[in-house]
């Protein structure tokens, strides 16, 4: 049995928490030995999804943890909230589409920064984004 | 944490020291636009060498500062973008094509001078 995986959990309710979440995620990824470029990509992606929480849901949570799958290790980021949900996920993932007055590159941008990216959302119940960056084999 | 703004001749230098919250960015934007008028500055250098994350909000705010500065008759140069930050910005899709950039503070000041010089020549040709 391997040692328990590292995990950090950050409550998101203000723009200070957005910074705290990306710094915590960056530290964890650093401990896992990811390269500087990957740390920056992960921290930037966390910043985008964390801001989506404060902008659309008001509050939520980000969990960053180490995962192992098929012999590879990586950093998984789970951003969840109980907010209004996303009505049209396909459109939300298109560049330039926004309902919040931003640039509309947050979600599609975060998807480009990470290796794996999945959204599950239910209108009126909330949104969960799961994204992963794999360490080089 | 507020970003210190230094006045050096006709140039304002904003040197970002730590991670910025959205509130810090908006405050910096307001202060720079106000000070550019108060000190009749010709240029602004924003030094982001200490920034490890340039997300879409910060990028959009910096572009807004550049545009507002221009509307106030001055120019802004962004300096010190770290290589891995540049990489992440391109992936994210915030390449800031319409913003002047330079490698570091020294290059940024030189660029401002050349931009100012051009404006001076235009002025000269009219008289």
UniProtKB/TrEMBL annotation, chain A:
Annotated source species: Conexibacter stalactiti
Domain Histidine kinase/HSP90-like ATPase: 37-137
GO molecular function annotations of the record: ATP binding
Identification of the protein by name: ATP-binding protein
One matching Pfam family: HATPase_c_2
InterPro entries assigned: HATPase_C_sf, HATPase_dom
Keywords in alphabetical order: ATP-binding, Nucleotide-binding
Top-level lineage group: Bacteria
